[in-house]
Amino acid sequence: MLKTISRLVFITTLLLTSVPSFADFSLDGKLKLTFPSGAVKEVDFPLSYSHKDFDHTFVVGSQSFAVSGQPESYSFAVLLKSNNYVWIQEFSKDQFKSFTLTLGEHNFSLKKQVLNKPVKGDYILTIDGKDYFFQHTLAQINFKFDDDGITEISVDGLVASLGINTSKDPCDEFEEDSDDKKECEFNK
User: Fold this and answer.
1) What UniProt keywords apply to this chain's record, in alphabetical order (predicted)?
2) How many CB atoms lie within 10 A of CB 63?
């Protein structure tokens, strides 16, 4: 009986003195933005969570946030402007034409590309090799986290490509067998 009580006291003491553990994670990132003017900006873009005692910090690019604990998720709002350029608050104060981003092992790109069937803004967002098109002018890239970093990436306001909408051939605008078409085909 005394042995059982001793074990119970020990386990209770252990549970009462245990502090919740939070695992830090840090993903190196590189962001490359191309602006409507043609200017290109490349910056480091880390994504991390760290804590020391009761100070918890979540970093997204150049922004740092004091948080109460490890975040479960985070989202980038992607705004397709009426002039067909894009803005993401975490990336730039200005609108831009395209971007590439690596976060750890994940790769993202947004590029303009004229397709056979028009898509909103002529944009293709590629996440880890999977293509998406804007369905609305406001979209989201959502991240879920665990102790090691990103566990899931999902999107809202975008529709996945089925692979049947291919790039428009720029040589199609020339008449068949014309010198211009032959030159275009030669220069592909």
Assistant:
1) Signal
2) 9
